[in-house]
Design goal:
79% of the residues lie in helices and 0% in strands. The chain has 112 residues and is mostly helical.
Length: 112
């Protein structure tokens, strides 16, 4: 349809249709980007294994640290107090008890 000045009245309708197509294309691109982001942020299949590996390392560190720390502190006490080997044995036994207590606390804690 033409007006008296020769302009076409269908132009605004075409602009709206073009705008809708652009909005639809934008929504499709946003949807695709969201899907890619969800895939990227999805936990990896090995995440559970990594958590178990970290937990095992923590238990091992508690055990070695308790025994080693108790032995070292007991040795130092024996050197200065002259109570060889009783300071070493007693403090190392305390280190073992504390290590096992910490390991039990770790194993009974609920997973996050």
């Amino acid at each position: 349809m033409s007006t008296d000045d020769g302009k076409n009245e269908e132009q605004p309708a075409r602009d709206l249709a073009g705008e809708d197509a652009r909005i639809d294309a934008l929504e499709a691109r946003l949807k695709a980007a969201r899907e890619r982001e969800e895939l990227r942020n999805k936990p990896a299949a090995g995440a559970e294994a990594d958590a178990n590996y970290r937990l095992g390392n923590r238990v091992l560190a508690e055990l070695i640290g308790g025994i080693g720390g108790g032995a070292f502190i007991g040795w130092v006490i024996d050197r200065f107090a002259g109570t060889t080997p009783w300071g070493l044995l007693v403090v190392m036994a305390l280190g073992i008890v504390v290590s096992f207590r910490n390991i039990i606390r770790i194993s009974t804690r609920r997973p996050d």
